[in-house]
Here is the input.
Amino acid sequence: MPIPCAFSRVFLRWRRRFLCSATATPPCLERQPNYPSPDPATSTRLQFGSPPPHRRTLTQDGPVTSDNTPGTTGVHLLVPLKPLARAKSRLLAGRGSAGHVELVTAMALDTVAAARRARGVVEVVVVSSDRALTEAFTGLGVEVVPDDPGDGLNAALRHGDEVLRARGAFRVGALQADLPALRPGELGWALRAAGTDRSFCPDLGGDGTTLLLGEPDQPLDPRFGPGSAEAHFESGAKSLLGPWESLRRDVDTEADLTAAEVVGLGPRTAARLFRSGG
Here is the structure.
């Protein structure tokens, strides 16, 4: 007996809705519009030097672009860092203690160096009370704000946000320090895609957050920790998914570090791995 047309249409609509819901992507990872590739003029070129041929190295140092000066409508980025003795415990477990502190420091230095060269970044300020990190960054002309709260990542970022906004920063963001393959052009393109919206960039695993941008003239309201991507999405931030793999390629484990090598490590991280034999 043939199925009535009206019933058939209802059944097909129900079937499509059921199948879509069964395979739906979490809201915080819904794909954004297909952004064009970053501007080649602001992308970082690859260089080959002392590291082995299979290891690509990014040139990340150099003068900050002319539009990244105080008084512009760009972003003031905070980079929080734990004391080196407690940093990257999972990476330490996978690689051992030899050269661990130096590797973590190199990754942070490469991350900050790349961020300082990205279009739309006014300044990068590190939040840390670690003496060795403070010396390393101030030696490169990077401001370090002491982590006076000493009560975890979010407290450090709220403190840094208050310090920057008290002296006139119009828009503040937070960038994780474990992005040794970060390319200035890709960070700049993500900032452009964010516009003036509260936004975040999830890591490639989809659970964590590598970049958080507050709305202009509003508190940063960081919600880092397990499930931070979902937490930031629920706070009203839009997710930034686009052609910026280096911005999402954070390093927590040995496998993450190997994957970052494929993208192209910053010069300090690559040199540290070369000296330690990988």
